[in-house]
């Protein structure tokens, strides 16, 4: 039965997806490492640049990390001059994050590196395959996405 397709199970899909995810993460980490930054730090700076002003709790949700991890990363990024904390205009106790000019420049560089890495990784796929993959991933993440928006 060399020409027959083997039966695809959900477990097989999960295994292939997990293997692909590990390759994706490793590739992105290598590319970001070329810029001297870790993936978590770059994701935080890029998200703040995209969403500013943003609270730490909103940032943690957007990036998919705990609030404690977000706070630790923010502390380090403030120390490194990439982020700034600002008091809220309506409530001075509220703290919002913004990128510094240095952070904004690095966010642009990291985003360009991320986009290049994505192009490299997904280059074997046709435009139709990429579109189908996006549609599939949207279905798989729909519950998570709607729960995060609540």
TrEMBL record:
<dbReference type="Pfam" id="PF12802">
    <property type="entry name" value="MarR_2"/>
</dbReference>
<dbReference type="GO" id="GO:0003700">
    <property type="term" value="F:DNA-binding transcription factor activity"/>
</dbReference>
<dbReference type="GO" id="GO:0006950">
    <property type="term" value="P:response to stress"/>
</dbReference>
<dbReference type="InterPro" id="IPR000835">
    <property type="entry name" value="HTH_MarR-typ"/>
</dbReference>
<dbReference type="InterPro" id="IPR036390">
    <property type="entry name" value="WH_DNA-bd_sf"/>
</dbReference>
<protein>
    <submittedName>
        <fullName>MarR family transcriptional regulator</fullName>
    </submittedName>
</protein>
<dbReference type="InterPro" id="IPR039422">
    <property type="entry name" value="MarR/SlyA-like"/>
</dbReference>
<feature type="domain" description="HTH marR-type">
    <location>
        <begin position="10"/>
        <end position="142"/>
    </location>
</feature>
<dbReference type="InterPro" id="IPR036388">
    <property type="entry name" value="WH-like_DNA-bd_sf"/>
</dbReference>
């Amino acid at each position: 039965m060399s020409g027959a397709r083997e039966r695809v199970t959900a477990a097989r899909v999960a295994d292939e997806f997990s293997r692909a995810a590990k390759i994706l993460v490793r590739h992105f980490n290598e590319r970001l490492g070329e810029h001297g930054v870790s993936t978590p730090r770059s994701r935080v700076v890029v998200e703040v640049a995209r969403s500013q002003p943003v609270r730490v709790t909103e940032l943690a949700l957007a990036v998919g990390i705990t609030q404690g991890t977000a706070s630790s990363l923010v502390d380090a990024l403030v120390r490194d001059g990439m982020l700034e904390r600002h008091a809220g205009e309506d409530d001075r106790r509220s703290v919002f994050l913004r990128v510094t000019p240095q952070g904004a420049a690095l966010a642009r560089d990291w985003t360009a590196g991320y986009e290049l890495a994505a192009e490299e990784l997904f280059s074997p796929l046709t435009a139709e395959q990429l579109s189908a993959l996006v549609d599939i991933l949207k279905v798989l993440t729909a519950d998570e996405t709607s729960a995060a928006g609540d």
